[in-house]
Design goal:
mainly alpha; 2 helices; about 0% strand; flat
Length: about 70
């Protein structure tokens, strides 16, 4: 099987596993914090929070487009 010369070779699975572990370790504290602060909210409060984040992201995108 020939590799396309325009595409870099895929890293070996050990390298991917190392990267995955590093990324997971970096993201884990944030995920735990989100769970801790969102768990006590009611479903309606969580919905409002998500809607607010989406509105914020849309406003940021709009500002960047100016």
């Amino acid at each position: 099987m020939r590799r396309n010369a325009d595409r870099p070779a895929a890293p070996d699975s050990g390298h991917r596993a190392d990267r995955h572990a590093a990324i997971a370790g970096w993201l884990a504290p944030g995920a735990a914090a989100w769970r801790r602060v969102l768990t006590p909210l009611t479903p309606a409060q969580r919905d409002l929070f998500v809607e607010t984040l989406r509105a914020y992201e849309a406003a940021v995108a709009e500002e960047r487009g100016r």
